[in-house]
Amino acid sequence: MRISILTMAVVAVSAAALSAAEIDPKEVNYEDGVVKASLTGVAGDPANGAEVVGNKSLGNCVACHQVSDLADIPFQGEIGPPLDGAADRWSEAELRGIVANAKIMFEDTMMPAFYKVDGFIRPGNAYTGEAADETFGPLLSAQQIEDVVAYLSTLKE
Amino acid sequence: MTNFKQAIGVFVVASTVAMGAVADPVDDTLVLNEETTIVTRTAAPAHVADALDEVMSGWLFRGTETRAMQADDFDNPGMIFVEQAEDTWNTAEGTEGKSCADCHGASDEMAGVRPTFPKWNDAAEEVFTLEMQINDCRENRMGAEKWKYTGGDMVNMTALLASVSRGMPVDVAIDGPAQSTWEDGKELYYTRTGQLELSCANCHEDSYGLMIRADHLSQGQINGFPVYRLKNTKLNAVHDRFKGCIRDTRAETYSPGSPEFVALELYVASRGNGLSVEGPAVRN
């Protein structure tokens, strides 16, 4: 199961890399935490974004945030603010910056950076407790970030 | 920034009330076997007063049934392992043909030992955890093999030694020769590790009382260790818990018994100075 997800991610990443439009995690341009340009040039898919937000082995955003739109997912956390109405509060470019690396917009925030590959202390190999190896990559792929941003953009009150 | 956080804080409180979620620690008293009152909440010791007003046992963050299991030794599954350790306590082992009891007397003579560990050991010139002390006795006084740091024999024995100190206040020394180890532990406590960049403090100081997915975050106190967990139906050692929490930050963990975890244990124990020893506690 885990292997197949990984394989899919690798396939997705290399396919996107072929299109040459994907922005590397180290090349993302943040202006006060905001990222204007799409990371892939491919429009995000909100349905897939909802899956990433709710799925424990993908974004697992609901570990910390409540999302009424995903009410069928049990045990939503309360570490961060509820995401209901996120699109009323933030533009698409702001949401992209928050999801890719919230620490630029919100200094010292508990929210993990989902599109970052360096600057970690003792990075591990997923949840194994072992040191990271050469398969280490960002928590979400560029297209997954775009999908999440597309989904968040539908959350209006 | 601060305003934004405060606004969120207010929002969280408001939504919690609205949904009637039980996120705060309960208002309940732990009386063990209807005779020993356990201090599960007390004023924070001076060295953590800048961060917390009160320190609270993990017991206050668990459900009604889990709390009840711990209140009665007949219902506490951890006590089975205490009984096993009692046999070991009285069994001679090693080249010296001695048992723990031969040097120390009955196990309840050890009341008062658990609350002061980890503590500085003059001969070894380092901070000793209870596990290190136990292995030191085995090797050097009994001529017996060391136990694995978080193995069954070891965790059972620490449960026995905790059980005879239940109700006594945790009281580890953080000054004198132990001070630099304590400072190393403090540094680790506040270091944001792993790909999720989370520190102990992020979860257990800034967010206790809140839900992180299905888990109700406590202050991560260790006065209840070793803890019997319903999740894996066995006693769990402190260093295994540290390892699990660090692993969950998607980090490379330290090993049980490592100098890093010894330092972290001293620091975390000191955050609970004043809480009663509870081990073996029951947790989910």
Output the keywords.
heterodimer; A: 157 residues; mainly alpha; Cytochrome Bc1 Complex, Chain D, domain 2; 5 helices; B: 284 residues; alpha+beta; two-stranded antiparallel sheet
Strand order, largest beta sheet of chain B: 10-9-11
Measure the end-to-end span of chain B: 36 Å
* Helicity range of chain A: 25-40%
Question: What is the total domain count of chain A?
Answer: 1
Oligomer: heterodimer
Give the biggest beta sheet of chain B: 3 strands, mixed
> What overall form of chain B do the CA principal axes indicate?
globular
DSSP E strands of chain B, number: 11
Low-confidence stretches of chain B: 1-22
CATH class of chain A: Mainly Alpha
Tally of strands of chain A: 0
Structural class of chain A: mainly alpha
Mean pLDDT of chain B: 93
Rg calc of chain A:
15 Å
Largest sheet geometry of chain A = none
Whole-number radius of gyration of chain B?
19 Å
Named at the architecture level, the CATH assignment of chain B is Orthogonal Bundle
Strand content of chain B: 5-15%
Query: What distance lies between the first and last C-alpha atoms of chain A, to the nearest angstrom?
Result: 36 Å
In the CATH hierarchy, what is the superfamily of chain B?
Answer: Cytochrome c-like domain
Pfam families (chain A): Cytochrom_C
Protein name (chain A): Sulfur oxidation protein SoxX
GO molecular function, one term (chain A): heme binding
InterPro entries (chain A): Cyt_c-like_dom (IPR009056), Cyt_c-like_dom_sf (IPR036909), Thiosulf_SoxX (IPR030999)
